[in-house]
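To the wet lab folks,

You asked to see what we're planning to order before we commit. Fair enough. Below is the target structure as tokens, and below that is the sequence we designed to fit it. If anything looks off to you, flag it before the synthesis order goes out.
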């Protein structure tokens, strides 16, 4: 069977070898899902690649891993297929090259550019507001009117949702668009929330040797739940504003503030841990290509969390204007680059887990 890229061709070869061996079938969802197939389309291989969490267990367990002549390195090859799938399914198609260009420099450049734009917006309307300690209840809106903030970030948010939905739809269609039951979604949700398969078969992630000492699962949890807490904080603050007439900022002990503080801490600890894990990752397990994209994604999350916490601590000082511009610049960059960066891996992985749950159910394993 011909494939669209060398990585997909190599993944097909490895799945054929692994299907003959099956020694690693108890490590994660990839190998049981692989065993349900005898041949692999591009959609099947992208499905398997997005099931893989890159824990490294199969690399250390495999008797055919390098330097064996079979050169079986499932985590590395599936990582390549996985990152290429993000670009392959991106919408619109003209934006696909952004995956190759979406790196650390671009992420930082966009954040600084948006921050300067916001600072310029404030300076044009009220120059003295930039370096003034705003102590009134509506101090955020002294820098940018609420309606302008909603229009700018609401538009970016809606575009992000549309682009991600279109990409996910293309991925799902390529996977065969299977019909799911409620139980399939429940199983996928539980496995995604627990990062069930990022544990090397139950012992933990592997890195430089055959001892499960990699803490990537912990850092992923900090990042994932930090993001969810920040999303919950923003959502609740929106309800406060429109339903209760209570405008931000809120006292530190109010629920939106507590959620935001907890989320900000998660978005600082998690990305720092993941960046360190990437820097110390065994060379044979590192994702080839798109490396800068992954760092850019993590740094944007880190800046978002750090500036959010700084606003909580220094929001009543003359630094408010600069910090708010950096925070909003990072958030705007995050929204606009989400469909073209590492963020989409969470959604594609959920869809892959959903299909896996459906496939198991259909053959009586669910």
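Sequence we intend to order:
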């Amino acid at each position: 069977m011909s494939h669209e890229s060398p990585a997909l061709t190599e993944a097909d070869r490895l799945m054929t070898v692994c299907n003959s061996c099956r020694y690693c079938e108890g490590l994660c969802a990839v190998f049981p899902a692989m065993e349900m197939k005898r041949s692999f389309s591009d959609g099947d291989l992208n499905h398997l690649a997005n099931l893989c969490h890159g824990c490294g267990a199969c690399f250390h367990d495999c008797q055919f891993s390098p330097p064996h002549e079979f050169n079986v390195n499932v985590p590395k090859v599936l990582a390549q297929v996985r990152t290429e799938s993000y670009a392959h399914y991106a919408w619109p198609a003209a934006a696909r090259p952004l995956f190759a260009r979406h790196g650390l420099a671009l992420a930082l450049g966009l954040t600084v550019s948006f921050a300067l734009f916001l600072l310029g917006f404030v300076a044009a309307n009220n120059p003295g507001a930039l370096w003034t300690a705003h102590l009134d209840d509506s101090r955020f809106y002294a820098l940018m009117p609420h309606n302008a903030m909603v229009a700018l970030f609401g538009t970016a948010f809606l575009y992000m949702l549309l682009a991600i939905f279109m990409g996910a739809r293309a991925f799902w269609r390529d996977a065969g668009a299977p019909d799911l039951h409620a139980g399939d979604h429940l199983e996928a949700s539980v496995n995604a929330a627990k990062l069930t398969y990022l544990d090397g078969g139950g012992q933990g992630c592997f890195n430089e040797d055959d001892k499960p000492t990699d803490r990537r699962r912990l850092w992923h949890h900090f990042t994932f739940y930090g993001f969810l807490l920040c999303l919950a904080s923003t959502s609740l603050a929106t309800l406060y504003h429109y339903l209760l007439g209570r405008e931000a900022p809120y006292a530190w002990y109010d629920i939106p503030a507590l959620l935001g503080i907890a989320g900000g801490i998660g978005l600082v600890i998690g990305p720092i841990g993941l960046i360190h894990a990437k820097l110390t990752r065994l060379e044979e397990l590192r994702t080839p290509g798109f490396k800068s994209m992954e760092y850019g994604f993590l740094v944007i999350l880190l800046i978002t969390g750090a500036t959010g916490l700084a606003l909580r601590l220094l929001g009543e000082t003359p630094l408010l204007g600069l910090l708010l511009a950096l925070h909003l610049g990072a958030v705007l960059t995050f929204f606009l680059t989400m469909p073209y960066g590492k963020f989409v891996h969470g959604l594609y992985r959920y869809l892959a887990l959903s299909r896996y749950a459906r496939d198991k159910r259909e053959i009586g394993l669910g």
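Structural context that might help your review: Residues 146-174 form the longest helix (29 residues). DSSP finds 15 helices and no strands in the chain.

Thanks,
Computational group
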